[in-house]
Amino acid sequence: MVVGHRKAQTVLASFLALIIITVMLVSCRKGPPTVQRLLVSGNVDRAIAVAHALPAEEREQAADILSAYAAAQQGVLTAKDLAAIHLAVIELSPLRPEAYGQLGITVAEHGGLIEPAAAGIEQWQKVLAVYPELQENAEFMRAGPLLRAGGSHVPPDGLARLAVMNELPTPKPSTSLGPWGPDLYIHHLFGAAGGFLVMTVEGPTCGLTGCVVSLADMSVKWYLENCVSAAVSGVGTHVAWVSCPEGGAQGTVHVIDTRDGRSSSLGSVALVDRSCHIAWSPDGCTVAITCRQGVTLFDVNGRSARVLALTQQLGDSELFPIRVHWLDSGRKLAVQLGGPWLGTPAYAEMDPIRVLEPGSGRIELVNVDPLAWSLGEAVWSPRTGLLACSIGPSSDRWIQIVNYEKATAADILATYGDVRSRPLGWSPDGTRLLLEMDPLQDETGWSCLWVWDSVSHELTLVSNRAHGAIWGDDGAVYWKAVEHDSWHGQLMVVRF
Q1: DSSP assignment letter at 239
Q2: Secondary structure class of 441 (helix, strand, coil)
Q3: Count of alpha carbons within 13 Å of 406, Cβ hemisphere only?
Q4: Which of 130, 146, 474, 483 lies 20 to 30 Å from 18, alpha-carbon distance?
């Protein structure tokens, strides 16, 4: 993949740019206006116009000069000038895959570049029609979605600008489920279904403790000691949870039947950093739990358990599963792999999103990252074939929606935000996505919650002071509302 060589390419490009700029300075002391002289004087628009007026045989060299200048002045040029230069390069020299990618990055990272984005995607489509063999060039193909996103969606700095000006829209009306006392606060929400909410709370006397809460009266029905992860089945008849003492590496899997309160142990799993992720099958009969070896499937009645190995078969044992979801009515499992000891390029090249068929053992690699940057949270829609993932050059800045069944970069449907952001979960019908965004780029620990409609592409503000949220299987969004001077907050709910 291209990103594996990006650092070396960047160093080389900077070196060549320095040489070309030096030559430009020497050659621009006299004579009529040229591309070089105009760029050195800072007249980008006129330099581009002169380049376009050159004879065909000289345009390739002009594209080289413009490209080198953009590389040398990356942190100096405005986004508008940078986009204009990259657009000129692909118009002067259409068969430069890297130039399309650079234009795509520029328009996707900055708001208000609708015209160069539109011109770029038009040029991209024309070139692809004439040279269909470019479909084999990953760098060229991955530029298309970024160009579309930059030209067809809300400017990514829009949320940040509105937040700074205190002009965020009024949040959707919600209901408080009550505070949890002055010395107890909600730590993490796991899920909600069938009239139950599963979460962890923390306080000076109880430490970090899991609990199953009845949404009817907000009473705690069961406490889950040493809980590291939990999940409630879709209809709320069972709660699965994994316990592991502090400093432990082996987790015990438990299940509670919420109808009669009976609890049983299903077995154990090898944990990574005392953490795992749990997902119930749509029929509520099987629990999938990530573990160091892969994904372990437990029958809810405790009759069987088996481990599905994911990484060893493909020679990338550095990775391990961190999230798991059921797809295709329970016939497939989608798994996100992680590797905290790997750098971003190495991690991205391993295609960390995979779809597994438990019956046949077949594994599909899903490429969801258009430029192979860092990949953060990834959540699957239960019904519509969409995958939402957070990506960015070095951190989780954008949220992208991908059709994972087609699994090509051209299927990216939307990009939002030059902000810190991540997807949290889909609505039960798979049409709306709960997003967490921090447009202020501050370190307070709370964020804005939004719901994105995959049909209308509209964003609805849920809360501008939230810390953690889930979209329950009961169709409601739950989150902890945080006040300016307190971390305790209140449990809130809103229905769509």
Answers
A1: E
A2: coil
A3: 11
A4: 146
> Hunting for tokens 């760098």 — which residue is that?
139
Q: How many residues does the chain have?
A: 496
Q: Which of 377, 492, 383 is nearest to 435 (CA)?
A: 377
Give percent of the chain with pLDDT exceeding 70: 71
The answer to whether 127 and 134 are in contact (CB under 8 A) is yes
pLDDT tens for residues 322-333?
Answer: 889 998 888 889
- Amino acid sitting at position 480: K
Non-local CB neighbours of 132 within 8 Å, separated by 6+ positions: none
Strand, helix or coil for residue 189: strand
CA distance 278 to 288: 6
Q: Are 454 and 433 in contact (CB under 8 A)?
A: yes
Phi-psi region of 360 (alpha: psi -120 to 50; beta: other; left: phi over 0): alpha
237 and 257 in contact (C-beta within 8 Å)? yes
Instruction: Report how far apart, in Å, the C-alpha atoms of 32 and of each of 28, 50, 335 are.
Output: 9, 11, 61
Domain spans in the chain, listed from the N-terminal domain onward: 2-152, 183-366
Tell me the C-alpha distance between 299 and 450, whole Å.
36
Tell me, what amino acid is at 397?
R
Phi and psi, residue 39, nearest 5°: -65, -45
Closest to 408 in 3D by CA, of 125, 117, 144:
144
Q: What number does CATH give the domain 2-152?
A: 1.25.40
Integer CA distances (angstroms), 448 to 149, 197, 430, in order: 22, 22, 21
Q: CA dihedral defined by 412, 414, 417, 418, rounded to 10 degrees? A: 30
Condensed to tens digits (0 to 9), the pLDDT of residues 7-16 reads 344 444 555 5
255 class by beta-carbon count within 10 Å (0-12 exposed, 13-18 middle, 19+ buried) = buried
Look up the CATH superfamily of 183-366.
Answer: YVTN repeat-like/Quinoprotein amine dehydrogenase (2.130.10.10)
Mean pLDDT of the chain: 78
Beta strand 320-327 with 294-299 is unpaired
